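step: validate -> pass
step: tokenize input -> pass
step: predict -> running
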Amino acid sequence: MSLQGGSQAPERGAKLFKVLTGGALLLVVLGAFTMLQRRAEYRTLAEETETLAIQTVGVIHATPEAGEEDLVLPGTMEAFVESPIYARTNGYLKKWYHDIGSRVQKGDLLADIDTPEVDQQLSQARADLATAEANAHLSEITASRYTELLKTDGVSKQEVDNAAGDLAAKRAIVQSEEANVHRLEEMKSFQHIYAPFSGVITRRNTDIGMLINAGNTGSAEQLFFLAQTSPLRVYVRVPEIYANTIHAGLGGYLEVTQYPGKKIEGKVVRTAEAIDLATRTLNTEVDVPNRDGTLLPGGYAQVHLEVKVTGSRLQVPVNALLFRSEGLRAVVVDANHKIHLRQITVGRDYGTNLEVLQGLDPKDWIVLNPEDSLEEGQEVRVKEIAMNTAAPAPGKPQTPTPGSNK
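step: predict -> pass
step: emit ->
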């Protein structure tokens, strides 16, 4: 019995060792599998994180323009002559004769001012003048008598000289008082306000009973605004690249929204003969007749100048450009999804769109609403945006285009 029990003990130990060894191996296999699985998950997460870290941008194509057309620019219509009318004397407005929209001729009476203070000053000045004239007359009689008495040695030469000097002084006082009277008479004449030129009243800033102060001390002192509306001046800003083609006598016409399809003839009369440093444009004046008064000062017009614009030109939305200190830039994405900041030259401003003369190609993908943080060579993901005003792309490159999100 003892021998049989001793042989079973090693067998049990061997079985237990095998079970423990198998369990350990199983644990090692499970641990290795778990580690490999987690490493794969970490790698996948890292790849997804890296992919999501790449910025997505919307891209569009530039719109090609017509091959040849007139130079069309926005313009603002202004009165040929416009002047605020001020009072030149103090008082109260007694009456006005023309309201806004009234067409007046040069010399027409616009308003009357009641000037009680000026009237009193004028009365006093005339009385002072009469006093000065009386004193001068008396001095003249005295000087004449002294001169006759000197012939008989009735007075001394000094007394005659004193009388002559007093007469000269009294005559100077008379001249001074006459000048003061003339000044007040001129002030009195300013109580009547006349139109300095023919035109239309565009503003009336006064009414009966208002206190009127002389001079242009503020906008509140402006009584009327008078504008000469025939002809009209239309100012346009011509891009620098076209400046050499603009000259006095150049023909053109206007188009306004109030009269669709109507062409209003005009011509260039003068230019600033200098490029504006801020806008890089040439300020140009176009005059158009307005005898019937249908065009209104301050209105907007499209000015067509008889300058044929040729060459390859594109249009891009204003929100597709970056305004930086080094100049205007467009953000372009290449076939490898890399960002490039492209320097461009702009032409005409259409409001929401700009004409691009240099720097872009019709095949370029342009980033819409680019962020200032975008840098040269940065990798991005792209999404093409359909623009209503955009023309179909002229063609796509043979290499993989950035229009794909793959």
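step: describe -> DSSP finds three helices and 22 strands in the chain.
step: cleanup -> pass
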